Amino acid sequence: MINFINQIILGDASKVLEELEENTIDLVLTDPPYFLDKLDENWKHENVKKGKLSSGIVKNLPVGMKFSPQQSYKAYNWFLDISGKIIRVLKPGGWFLSFSYPRIFHRFACAVEDAGFHLRDIFIWIYTQNQPKAFSLNHFLKEQDEEMKELLRIYKVPKVKSCFELIIVAQKPPEGTLLENFKKYKVGLFNTSLIQGENKFPSNIITTEKINPIFDKYFLIDKPGKKEKGYYNDHPSVKPIKLCKFLIELTTLENAIVLDPFMGSGTTIIASILSKRNYIGVEISEHYFNIAKRRIEEIKSNLFNK
Q1: At what angle do helices 105-114 and 69-89 cross, to 10 degrees?
Q2: Can you give the residue ranges of every domain in the chain?
Q3: Best label site of 61, 120, 215, 225, fewest CB within 10 Å?
Q4: Residue 232 neighbours by CB under 8 Å, 6+ apart
Q5: Dihedral angle at the C-alpha atoms of 110, 114, 118, 121, nearest 10 degrees?
Q6: 3-state secondary structure of 65
Q7: 30-78, pLDDT tens digit by residue?
């Protein structure tokens, strides 16, 4: 087995996972491909750039609308295979936290459970900084149908404004009790010292705004701005460092090993470094790999110069 500790790898996550030693990873935190717009695991950055326009439309349909039930089943099969490889490399009691799009969350969650994980819960990250994707179909209407034109002024494609993301919280079955597993592998419990207030258990709601006093103040996490992402970063789905850092510190001890098999522009790796955890990152796109490499080098430089 190859030692990839504190490295990022340009390659196929499915193949790299097979090269990792079993029972060695404390946490897998990742944002996998969602298979929207008919982009499968073989997608390329160039195809995304060619297909998407500045208006958020892919070949005359809004982002996420080129989707079929068959695509959902394919996503399940692919994620079942990936989850099976992830459970092998995790320590007993180790965590698998995966972001997921609401439309196919059920397929991803079933794939994780069918691979042998215990589904512990979900986190819901709520935000309001988003734009609705629904648009009018008027320009597709070829015949001069005034009644239909009038209806299409208010009836648009069935697409809602997305204001939340789901995070699957799954755990590899522990050896013995949770306490016995934690004593042996130092993983499998939550770090409640991160939670403010009298309630020492995290809420499963993570929000960008204070919408209710029962939600922990720690969970007020905004979407990342250009400064955090890097002005050169054109990845379409960059997660906040603060959010990933919290999830890492909640589920692992210092010096644990955090794996992100779909690294994107490197947020999980940056959060691992800031949390004093070891890391392994894998990214199949050379374009995003180079962005992640640059971001990681910048954060290491900033820490070194402090």
Answers
A1: 40
A2: 7-128+166-305, 129-162
A3: 225
A4: 291, 294
A5: 0
A6: coil
A7: 999 876 544 444 545 455 554 443 333 333 334 444 567 778 888 899 9
